[in-house]
Write a sequence for this structure.
């Protein structure tokens, strides 16, 4: 499945805590169904795909497909149902059936925590749930791309750029300077990075910075200017503008709702 075909519409979400057994050992669903494991283990079989899943694993079952499952340890997991927003071939569907593992455990834990906190199906909660589930799928796609053994020279250059952005994410960065250091124009850099990771360098950088900003809003009493300085933004005003645009609410509102 190509990266630009990954958009989905979330239609159902239930969080199960310490479930000791499934009501049915085999079931099939009219929608794509995702079991996202937080704790415990379970055995599964979906067509030719079978094995065990635990934390770090997503098990994805296509519609109208027998989903065999058995708990091996008390299981805490998110039961999510969705539909893809574009048609896909049988081969593309097969690429996403069965177990999908995520290496970025910190980001995975963060997404799970937000999913647990979101209550109800009002417009705002639904939007945030949708973002979290899309993010899970996007992480799988990105990690798959990065693990490809047939990386071209251009992809290696973009991996170097990605690594640099990760290492210097909370510093003042000029994308033009980064591009020049890679021997590229700003337009070339953006185009190549988007081709490699399905997002622009600025979008990638904002994602990292806003994750830290969310954590600081939740777990500290720092002012917005202080948080901005720790996340690589010029000032609290600019952070507030980016945060509101990307997260869907002002930092002050987010803090009031998510303080730990």
């Amino acid at each position: 499945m190509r990266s630009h075909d990954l958009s989905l519409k979330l239609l159902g979400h239930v969080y199960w805590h310490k479930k000791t057994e499934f009501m049915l050992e085999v079931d099939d669903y009219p929608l794509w169904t995702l079991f996202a494991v937080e704790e415990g283990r379970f055995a599964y079989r979906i067509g030719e795909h079978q094995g065990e899943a635990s934390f770090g694993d997503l098990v994805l079952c296509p519609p109208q497909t027998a989903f065999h499952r058995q708990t091996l340890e008390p299981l805490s997991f998110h039961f999510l149902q969705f539909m893809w927003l574009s048609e896909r071939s049988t081969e593309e569907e097969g690429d996403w059936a069965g177990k999908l593992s995520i290496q970025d455990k910190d980001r995975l834990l963060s997404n799970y925590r937000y999913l647990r906190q979101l209550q109800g199906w009002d417009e705002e909660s639904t939007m945030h749930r949708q973002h979290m589930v899309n993010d899970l799928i996007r992480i799988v796609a990105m990690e798959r791309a990065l693990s490809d053994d047939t990386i071209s020279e251009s992809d290696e250059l973009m991996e170097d750029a990605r690594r640099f952005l990760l290492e210097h994410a909370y510093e003042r960065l000029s994308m033009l300077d980064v591009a020049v250091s890679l021997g590229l124009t700003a337009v070339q850099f953006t185009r190549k990075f988007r081709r490699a990771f399905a997002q622009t360098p600025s979008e990638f950088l904002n994602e990292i910075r806003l994750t830290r900003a969310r954590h600081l809003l939740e777990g500290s009493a720092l002012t917005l200017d202080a948080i901005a300085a720790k996340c690589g933004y010029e000032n609290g005003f600019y952070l507030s503008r980016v945060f509101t645009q990307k997260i869907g609410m002002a930092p002050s509102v987010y803090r009031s709702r998510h303080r730990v």
